[in-house]
Amino acid sequence: MIEIRQEEMKDRGAVLQLVHDAFGQWDESDLIKRLYLEEEVLFGLVAEEEGKVLGHILFSVMEVQSPELILSAAALAPLAVLPERQKEGIGSKLVEAGIQICRNNVDLAGIIVLGDPDYYRRFGFSSELAEKLDGPFTGECFMALEFRKAVLPEGAKIGYGKAFALE
């Protein structure tokens, strides 16, 4: 049976290898390391079965700033599942658990993700919502999920953490 739980330090090696295997490169694993080094991680979750890490999701801190206010949001990146275990719903379980944890955090206004629109729309993410934000990305792959209607102000600037090296 697959268990979704908080990522622990003992998982780090398996997580970094899993993320590499899922993406076929080290870039996303390097991002995870930088996010931890910069202390920008909100939390990570792993999907585990019989002691083996099958999937991983990470949420980090980001800022949503308008002339009137500054809000905190979560950046969802990366999400990875072992290639041989994809299409089994493991990623969906990780996303759903992560969204619930973020919703329970009263300091967060929502979540921003850059990913497959067909995949993330089923969780409530919207590229139309992200379109009204001033972020480093555009297009239908740049999506947002807000926890209260109209909480993300139009024209607000999205600030990813330093680890993303977007500046």
From TrEMBL:
Residues 2-148 form the N-acetyltransferase domain. PROSITE patterns: GNAT. This is N-acetyltransferase. It comes from Kiloniella laminariae.
